[in-house]
Amino acid sequence: MKATKPFVKFFSPISTNLGTLFPIHNFLIPFYSETATKKTGLDEIRDLLINHVQDADRINLVLTLLSETGDHQKATGKRESMKVIGLMAEVFEDRLAVYLPKILNIMSKKLKENDPQIHDTLSASLGNLVNFTLRNLDMDTAYKNLESIFQMLFQLCSKGNRYTQIGAAMCVTKTIQSCSFEFLYLMVDDISSRIIEVLRQHTCKAHIQLFECLLSLILVFEGNSDKLHQSAKNILPVAIDNLTNGDWNVRKIAVEVIYTLSVIIPEAIIPYKHEILEVLGHCRFDKVLLLDMWEY
Hints:
This protein is mainly α. It contains 16 helices and no strands.
């Protein structure tokens, strides 16, 4: 049975009372957990959004349903339901901007559920939100919305449990990768400072993902390295500190950050050259070592 038919039944006529929310909820989410319907689920929801969810009340209703999904859902259902937000961004584009506070509240709630299985889906949906919803807004409005997104994510990076921090950091990376260069040019120093601030906290449990954020930010400016100089001065000390981190994976990505900076702006490495070589000398038998760095 096609998923769209029951959707249409309950979306017309529209009502926002709880008696209506429950039956819609029964059809909007659970079919994702079934292999037979999951493959066509997004296509059917896209059709639903385009043809039956075009006014403010119905958009609000869909977001309310997504916020209502809870622990009773199967893991697949939770993960797939979050794809709807990314789909809504594609369909409604800048019209979805007014609902950003509600969407961020939903995403924050999901990240706090301590479920790593939804991280990839959440970050991809947030990337769609940045790419499709913010790109056509005026500069000031888009900038304020981006600030709201980063504010929410960095709060979770600072105060959340391990999986919340990891998921929030993954969302930061996706936001950076999806954001237009003009905004990142204005925000690079602030973003890098916030990442470094979280990395230095003793409660930080997402070092790998936060260094991935820095790598994404650095690579954005590969062809415009002048803008990176100030950020590089802040990034290098924390990267050097983590060359001796007890986690092999953290050491590895710290080396990658330093190496990437040494390729893009080698002059920024010069003041830290002896310090870097000294640390690398102590761990020269570590398999994480990138030998190319010795050239710098």
